[in-house]
């Protein structure tokens, strides 16, 4: 059976680092308050003039170099923070990578975006539509967060991660397993930026300034995230023919350490099987899973042959999960 195989990996973070202490100096918060509630110690943020496309290009270029090829048929970009509302950002990413003429498009499912993009790319490879697809998750989330909102400003960061997929055979290391996805539009207002779309433009009265920033009902999100990430992971593991205890590494969306611990507990997995990267970068939304994979591969946290489960929950509401056996990848 023709399958999508991971053959390259890349990640990139903006140079500017914002520590908890820096946030505490201007907001009603502290390093202890942030760490105990989120597990985050620092986050990277874009500088003036830096675009999501630039983050994506840096990560994508590293994924191509990791695989040792620039022969790519398609680019799929997962992002909640495109350079512009129109057109999509992916064609610009493709152009900067020297891939002008290849099909390129954006996918938006907020923090589940990378898994939606991975499912799309894997399906296109399996169908024979493309032999190689670059899948990127890139976010400049700090640009849509109210800088005076201590809870949001403490949580989110910016960055990009990428995987290069090639056509291969079922059973190869790095083969992307079946991806389970879901959504519930009744939870639209759980995680949202109200302004900037048709809803704002067709309203008889202007929206409030607060509607231009990211808003989240945190307590409700926590419960839905744990439930949906756990259920999706169980489905993906079952589809792979595994049991939960067979999972060597669980890579969840890096939203909050307590959410990741709760999902591991629901799966009866020890916490040392979790891949954790949010302490250094915060919640990078659609970029969080590929960035966590990139960092874990570079540090030896992921080893060839590890059975890996990926799971996420995001705005929409959306959720998803998949599995794979980790391949040998070069980190650059």
From TrEMBL:
It catalyses: 3-methylbutanoyl-CoA + malonyl-[ACP] + H(+) = 5-methyl-3-oxohexanoyl-[ACP] + CO2 + CoA; malonyl-[ACP] + acetyl-CoA + H(+) = 3-oxobutanoyl-[ACP] + CO2 + CoA; (2S)-2-methylbutanoyl-CoA + malonyl-[ACP] + H(+) = (4S)-4-methyl-3-oxohexanoyl-[ACP] + CO2 + CoA; 2-methylpropanoyl-CoA + malonyl-[ACP] + H(+) = 4-methyl-3-oxopentanoyl-[ACP] + CO2 + CoA. Keywords: Acyltransferase, Cytoplasm, Fatty acid biosynthesis, Fatty acid metabolism, Lipid biosynthesis, Lipid metabolism, Multifunctional enzyme, Transferase. Residues 254-258 are annotated as: ACP-binding. Pfam families: ACP_syn_III (PF08545), ACP_syn_III_C (PF08541). It is an enzyme of class 2 (transferase). The keyword Lipid metabolism applies. The keyword Zinc does not apply. Belongs to the thiolase-like superfamily. FabH family. Its EC number is 2.3.1.180. Residues 238-326 form the Beta-ketoacyl-[acyl-carrier-protein] synthase III C-terminal domain. Catalyzes the condensation reaction of fatty acid synthesis by the addition to an acyl acceptor of two carbons from malonyl-ACP. Catalyzes the first condensation reaction which initiates fatty acid synthesis and may therefore play a role in governing the total rate of fatty acid production. Possesses both acetoacetyl-ACP synthase and acetyl transacylase activities. Its substrate specificity determines the biosynthesis of branched-chain and/or straight-chain of fatty acids. Residues 105-185 form the Beta-ketoacyl-[acyl-carrier-protein] synthase III N-terminal domain. Its main location: cytoplasm. It comes from the Bacteria. It is found in: Cytoplasm. One of its GO terms (biological process) is fatty acid biosynthetic process. It comes from Streptomyces hainanensis. The active site is at 111, 253, 283. The last Arg residue of the ACP-binding site is essential for the weak association between ACP/AcpP and FabH. Homodimer. Pathway: Lipid metabolism; fatty acid biosynthesis. GO terms for cellular component: cytoplasm. This is Beta-ketoacyl-[acyl-carrier-protein] synthase III. GO terms for molecular function: 3-oxoacyl-[acyl-carrier-protein] synthase activity; beta-ketoacyl-acyl-carrier-protein synthase III activity.
